[in-house]
Design a protein that fits this description.
This protein is about 40% helix and about 15% strand. The protein is α/β, with parallel strands linked by helices. The protein folds into two domains: about 150 residues, Aspartate Aminotransferase, domain 1 (Alpha-Beta Complex), CATH 3.90.1150; about 240 residues, Type I PLP-dependent aspartate aminotransferase-like (Major domain) (Aspartate Aminotransferase, domain 2). The strands form five sheets. The chain has a seven-stranded mixed β-sheet with strand order 4-12-11-10-9-5-6, sandwiched between helices. A four-stranded antiparallel β-sheet has the order 13-14-17-16. The model has no long low-confidence stretch (mean pLDDT about 95).
Length: about 425
């Protein structure tokens, strides 16, 4: 049965959708760079700062309230990720969390140890691990098929060895939307005793996550990609983080997970806003629990509602994504960079226009109130080096979110057609 998604109810929560540019209602297709934020998230951040603002570990009421808000944040994000609350840690960004993790793992690396990254990934999940070469590690990168925009599992198997200590892999590409079956990579990595890190920054806004099902040691994502503020979230598997010497000040050397991964005073107001963003997803999901009965078997409470919400978002976006992709493919001179239809992907659609710089296309669309990203989006290896698109300015990237509409997609396709006729 087709989902009857209540887009109006979603859009009503996002004040940004009422804005106009040059008389045109704004179309927010810039979600892969950061989604818009519902009013309730802004209110929650303000509420904390106005009524609960304090540092933790005090004996007075606002400090105690802050500790409760922190605890609630871990509980809510645990339901989002599918883990225990003491496996959720927060940091300033995903890149920052990866850098801290990389330097922690570096403390036990030996010269000649090997680290595997991928050619499809964002630099936030490449550069921190490349830094380990400074400690004597050998860095290997898994090749990507430039026809299908998928990772080569055969190349991965060739690069994996008994010397592999770290495998950092991307769950969904922020450039092409490609979804990788990370579990099979993780399972092989664990066979040789390697620690695994999954970059779920682009995956998290589109699909439900279950970190226990994929079996990873760490997973990173960013709240501002799923309707929240700028904050990094990291899943730290208890059995793994307990044995890692994290990078901290001496005053906190005896900290237990997940606090042992966090440095300095947490950003309490943003943690409050992040948990509210997940509550927004859960509240939307309540409406569709009956529609996804089979998929939700065994789940309960907030976790059930979150998964329901993510499934609804994914199904709603997928229909628009297909129309967008097919519409662009019909335009002469347009090349779309997406995996084949039989490969899993997110609703993100990237394209180029023949003999045109991506930035020029983006400026034209922006003046019509269509917001999107152009360039390499820090997916430098695949866009600039594998696909050789640096001189053309990389891609134009269109990302869908549940506040978008089919009417917006049609308007975007028409705008690209107009540009191609200039």
């Amino acid at each position: 049965m087709k989902l009857n998604f209540d887009n109006d109810a979603v859009r009503a929560q996002f004040p940004a959708v009422d804005r106009k540019i040059n008389g045109n209602p704004c179309i927010y297709l810039d979600g892969p760079g950061g989604t818009q934020v519902p009013q309730r998230v802004v209110d929650k951040i303000s509420e904390y700062l106005l009524h609960h603002n304090a540092n933790a570990h005090g004996c007075y009421v606002t400090s105690l309230e802050t500790e409760a808000i922190m605890e609630n944040g871990r509980e809510v994000l645990a339901d989002f990720l599918g883990c225990e609350k003491d496996e959720v840690a927060f940091g300033e960004s995903t890149t920052g969390n990866n850098i801290k993790l990389a330097f922690a793992l570096a403390r036990d690396l030996k010269p000649g140890d090997e680290v595997i990254i991928t050619d499809i990934d964002h630099e936030g999940n490449r550069s921190p691990w490349k830094l380990l070469a400074d400690f004597g590690a050998i860095i290997k990168s898994v090749k990507v098929d430039k026809e299908t925009f998928t990772l080569s599992f055969d190349d991965y198997k060739e690069k994996l060895s008994s010397k592999t200590k770290v495998v950092a892999i991307n769950w969904a590409s922020n450039a092409t939307g490609t979804i990788t079956d990370v579990k099979k990579y993780i399972d092989l990595a664990h066979e040789v005793g390697a620690i695994t890190i999954v970059d779920a920054v682009h995956y998290a806004p589109h699909k439900p996550m279950d970190v226990k099902a994929i079996g990873t040691d760490f997973l990173v994502c960013s709240a501002y990609k799923f309707f929240g503020p700028h904050l990094g979230v990291i899943y730290t598997k208890k059995e793994t983080i307990s044995g890692i010497r994290t990078v901290r000040v001496d005053a906190y050397d005896n900290a237990e997970p997940p606090e042992k991964f966090e440095t300095g005073t947490p950003n309490f107001e943003l943690i409050s806003g992040t948990s509210e963003a997940v509550e927004f997803i859960a509240d939307i999901g309540k409406k569709y629990v009956d529609h996804y009965k089979e998929e939700l078997k065994g789940l309960k409470g907030r976790r059930k509602n979150i998964v329901s919400g993510m499934l609804a978002f994914d199904e709603y976006e997928e229909e628009m994504s297909l129309v967008l992709k097919n519409g662009l493919l019909e335009i002469p001179g347009v090349t779309v960079y997406c995996p084949p239809s039989n490969e899993p992907k997110t609703s993100t659609v990237s394209f180029t226009v023949k003999d045109k710089n991506a930035h020029d296309v983006a400026i034209y669309l922006a003046n019509k109130g269509i917001f999107m990203w152009d360039g390499d989006f820090y997916a430098i290896e695949i866009i600039n080096n594998v696909l050789k698109l640096e001189e053309q300015g990389g891609f134009v990237r269109l990302g869908l979110a549940p506040y978008n509409t089919m009417e917006e997609i049609i308007r975007t396709i028409e705008a690209v057609k107009e540009y191609c006729k200039l």
